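QA checklist item 7 of 12: single-chain prediction sanity check.
[x] sequence parsed
[x] length recorded as 43
[x] structure emitted
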Amino acid sequence: MTALEFHRRAIECGQLLQSLGGNHAHLIRAAAVRMQHGNATTI
């Protein structure tokens, strides 16, 4: 991986963290809860 690729991924990760901490946090939590319930019912 080149330094440029690493830098680009670091920026993407930073943007993802910002979105996780922002408006999308409740949507991601809801999706995680749904996945947990889905897995629990299939087992």
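[x] summary fact logged: The chain has one domain: 3-42.
[ ] second reviewer sign-off
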